[in-house]
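Onboarding guide, step 5: your first structure request.
Type a short instruction followed by the sequence, for example:

Predict the 3D structure of this protein.
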Amino acid sequence: MSRFNTRTARPAVKSPVTTTGETTRTYEGATGHVRDARSELFLLAVSHFLAGTFYEKADERDDRFERLVRQLALEDPAWTASLLGWLRGEGNMRSAALVGAAEFVKARLDAEKASTDTNWNVPGNAPWANRAVIASVLQRADEPGELLGYWTSKYGRKLPKPVKRGIADAVQRLYNERSLLKYDTDSKGYRFGDVLNLVHASPADDKPWQGDLFKHALDRRHGSDEEIPARLSTLLAREQLTSTPVDQRRQVLADHAELLHRAGMTWEALAGWLQGPMDAEAWTAIIPSMGVMALARNLRNFDEAGVSDAVAAQVAARFADAEQVARSRMFPFRWWAAYKHAPSLRWVHALEQALNHSLVNVPRLGGRTLILVDRSPSMFPGYGFSTPNKSDIPLAEQAAVFGAALAVRAEAPTLVEFGMRSQRVDVPRGGSVLRLIEKFGRIDGTDIPSAVKAHFDGHDRVVVVTDEQTRPGWFPSNARSWGGMPETQIDDLVPKSVPVFMWNMAGYRAGAAPSGGGNRHAFGGLTDHAFRVVPLLERGRDARWPWEK
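The system replies with structure tokens like these:
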């Protein structure tokens, strides 16, 4: 009888989110598996919107994030620097990346000051590394001011040299006429001119116009009436629009709509310039200049203003363009939110296409796949603060987007929504992801083991999309005992030969199962890299951190 060359034999593979073997308790009382510091920081970072969640207050969550960054900035600076750069890049997480970079540099500067080791500045600890980390997380022109706001509010106005130089590097890359018009506003504590004064950025050698731009930014910050330099054509076009009498602006809009684009006019700026309602004519004029994300967020406004079907078709065509959707860097759940808030049906097909483009790397899994989607109270707003950044897209809906997309693409899916109880969700062949998401409800409690026990039936894999804060699962088995009652875990219910993939949506400290090997893996984030890991591991290849090639 063969012991090793069996049908279920597979190469042993590893994934980067790893548990240590130490256990604790989940917030709902089940055995929780403690992750190493890198794994804990990664999962927290990709789900960290600087807001509270059901089980953690915002300040507690922030403190844990900052503590982990500072710890790993000293223990593993190269890994942490790579995480922060990826987080703001492919990960598309803005605030967490900025806070992480600031705390990374502060921890290393403090340690250097306290150290008596003359070899502190070895590769990986060199001062240029701090500067590079700061520059790497600044990817939008308002972010140098954001980072200064964070640093000075916490550590005072004195800026260390690496912070100054990293911000100056980003300023050279990011400051242009359109960004000045969009982000240099009175609502900001640090205007472009303030940033320039503090970091002393020099114009980039390959941008001869940037010296004029910097001078103008300083002039406008200090209320100077200096004329706009001739090389700054976009600013001159905006000045032309601004100088137009209010009673003549509607006529300019009708006769010279192309001037709006030349003047770098956003829809928000147009609304203020008109000093009147954004009617169909105004939207029709500005829509060609709007980005894809701005279009998706204004579908209700377009309908309420009564834009024509021809204009709506232009918008829909941009949503259907895979390249434009990719450039927008919109998370998949943003397209669900646009669909949810769009009043008319004329946007539905285009939004379905856009969502599919954003989910292009969700794998098409062969065989039978059990997909469990957490619909417990901790995944919804109202019970806590599980809504990122106070938006209207709770973790439950983000989980449903991924679960539905995975199910629609799978060869033989069993899609289940669960809390303390669970039920199957019918997946029509070739159906709509958006319509499938609408079928999900809300269920009290969280019990992953019970859902697995009820629905696992020889599947080829199990995928659980959850915050992992499960109850123990009170089902008799040969499982270990807790509190006088039997505690069932996934390993008691799913053979070790069947992979279990846990998608962590909230980044809490304790996981619901071991991970990192043995066909038990945990992941976080809804990025392209996250979508690729399941087939990678099933092909017998180790999964790496997303920034590792």
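Each response can be followed by summary notes, for example: The chain has a mean pLDDT of 87.
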